[in-house]
Structure formats: C-alpha cells, structure tokens
Design a protein that fits this description.
The chain is an alpha/beta fold. The protein folds into 2 domains: about 280 residues, Zn peptidases (Aminopeptidase); about 140 residues, Alpha-Beta Plaits, CATH 3.30.70.360. It contains 10 helices and 16 strands. The strands form 4 sheets. The chain has a 6-stranded mixed beta sheet with strand order 1-2-6-3-7-15. A 4-stranded antiparallel beta sheet has the order 10-11-9-12, with helices on one face. Helix 1 packs antiparallel against helix 10 and helix 4 crosses helix 10. It is elongated, with a radius of gyration of 25 Å. It binds zinc ion. Zinc ion (ZN) binds next to helix 4.
Length: about 425
Amino acid sequence: MNIKSENLLNEIEKRKDDLIDLTQKLIRIPTLNPPGNNYLEICEFLKQRMEKSRFETKLIRAYDTPGDSNKYPRWNLVCFKDGINKGNTIHFNGHTDVVETGNYWSVDPFEGKYIDGLIYGRGACDMKGGIAASIIAVECFVAVSPNYSGRIELSFTADEETGGYGGVAFLANEGYFSPDRISSVIIPEPLNKDRICLGHRGVWWAEIETFGKIAHGSMPFLGDSAIRHMGAVLKEFEEKLYPKLKTIKTNMPVVPEGAKSSTMNINSIHGGEAEQEKGFSGYPAPVVADNCKIVIDRRFLIEEEIQKVKKDIDDILKNLENKRENFSYKITDLHEVIPTMTDKNSRLVSELTSSIKEILGVNPDYVISPGTYDQKHIERIGKLKNCVAYGPGILDLAHQPDEYISVNDMLDSAKVMALSLEKMLI
Ligand SMILES: [Zn+2]
C-alpha cells in the first residue's frame, strides 16, 4: 500500500470519536416514517456538517409526492464538491428515514447509547451508521487528497422505507442520477462490510377481485358468494402456482437462500361486510358477499419476464372463468419493478472488491437483495446502471428492537469507501 493510502486509513482511525458522535447525533433526530418526522431537521444538521467540510449543498423539497404536506414536508439534501480536474463523479446516497421502534427495546431507541463498541438505536444500522461512515470516508479522502480529479456528491433522502417517492425517485426525476453527470452510486445500506449488493429481485403488486351477488345469508342459493370464488382462486394457487414457483430458480446470488426461488405473498384479503370499529359490540349481518379482494406481492427473478409473471396468474383466473359457474374477476396493477443486477465487472464493483481485499483480507461476497431499495429508482428513472449497496451493519438487525451498529464495522467500511474513492478519483 502506498504512503498516501496509508495516510488515508490513519486519518479515518483518528476520526473514530467523531464517527461515533456523528452516528449518535443522527440517531437522536427521530426521523420516523411514516409519517415522515424531522426531515428538515436532519437535512439542516447534515447541511451544516457538509458545509463545514467545504461542500456546496442544496436543500430540495419533494413537493406533492406521496405524504408531502406542510406538516410533514419531504426534504432532501444534495452535497457536491469538485476536484481540481475533470473526472468521474462518485455519488453516495443514504436514506434519512427510519421505521417505527416497536416494543421490547432494552435501551431508549433515540438516545444512541454507546456500549462496548456498539451504538444502539433505531436506524443505527439502517442506515444512519452507513451515512456516518460514508461522510467520514469522503471527508478524510478530501483532507488527504485535496487535488483529486472529478467530483464527489452525497445525497441524503427521504422516504426509502415507504417507496422512495419523496426521496430518490424525486431526485432521479429531476435528473440528479443521470448517467451524463454521475459515474457510480454507492448506497451504504447495511449489507455487511464484506458483501457487495449488486441489485434486487423484481416486484409485482396487484389486486385481484372476485365478484358475486348479495342475498340474505339464510338463503345463500339466491346470491353468489365472492368469497367462495376467491377460495377457488386460492386453491388453484396452492395446487398449481406455489409448487411451480418453487421450481423457478435463479442464478442471481440472492440472499437468503429461500429467495433464490420465485415467491409470492398474499398481503391481505377482504371480503363481504366491512370490519367494524374496535369496540363495536353488535352482531354481523347475514349477507352473502358480493365482493372479495386480495393483494398479491409477487417477487420474480432476472430470468423471468414480467409479462409472463402476469400471464401465469391471469391464465389461472381465465381457466377458472371457463370451468366455474358465474366466476368473474378483475386484476388491477398496483406497482412493479424490474429485477436489476449491476455488472460484476464494472469499474465500481472491481474497485470496491480490491479495496475490501486490502482492508479485510477477504474476497467479498456478491449478493442480490430479496426486496427492492432505492437502487430501483436510480436504474429505472435515472437510467444509471453503476449502482451498488455497500455499507456497514448486519441486515437482519434492520427494523428490529435493540438495533445496533458496530463502530469497528463502520471504520472498516469507511476505509473501503475511501480507498475506492482514491482509486476512482485520482
Ligand atoms: Zn435501509
């Protein structure tokens, strides 16, 4: 390792206390989403920090995106710093929102308590620790190599936990992730410091509705139950669809193992009389259900075409329409994302790989996430291919009680990020 790289790594070690302090301060701003609390506060805090490090900053509100209101405005922050020559632009993106705390915490989820090398709190690993590590990486790189070529950007964005529409999707629509201005994006989500996440599986959400005819419950033969029709749909799914999904396997390195097959969850089912408010003590009415709905969450693989994924479901329903009396249905698309996988041979992945080898002495694992994250908007709206998730933290701890981040893991991944910057911007 050359002397400059050694200086860079030493500089990161020296800022350990600053890294702990920064992570704690981020955790102490409770950016719960929903509803989307304190986005302006966290952006103002990060703005001050980055301006002190001589970055230009821009506060951007995602007006009129889902959830945006004067009470809960969707604020985002973008920070820039140019080197002395033209070159690559490397962009770090982190989401500032965290999910609800839930029960069973043994510490205050917003205190950011430091115990034996670990910092505890909601968002510690997902992903305020990752944000802090990327900031330290960038600041140390600029301090040690002020004469770099190219440009460094960081964005801190809202709403990842609820789809990213008031965050990365909004910025992508505004052109912030266009390939003509950005070379590569690193999202420091908690994927473990020795793993590079290249992408994610695809998603199709849809509502399926069956129809019937209302009648008195004592004479169901005068009506037609939409719930029984839905029962027939579910039976077909159990007997035909689920066994088939299990056999569709991917070559994508998806983790965990079970997600290497195609999957489908049924998120909800509603039929007949609406549920009454909690505390209502009356009886239900005897009515035949004239309507039943389910919402499906189908996760598919890069080897599958979305049209085929949709057709398989439609074929099952069409088949029922032919063989089952009075069966009729409707499918409504709710949301879809195509699977994505960044090229393992891209510059970004190979520089991260060699940095991981230098810092940790191991070859990284390349993984694919079972669910999607903000990379989907960078690829689909921004049309930018070179994007990975790489950051400190244990994925399984995300959204759990007593979520924590290890300070050593943050330091190691900050070193990997800084060394990769050195390789790409010098
Ligand atoms: Zn996250």
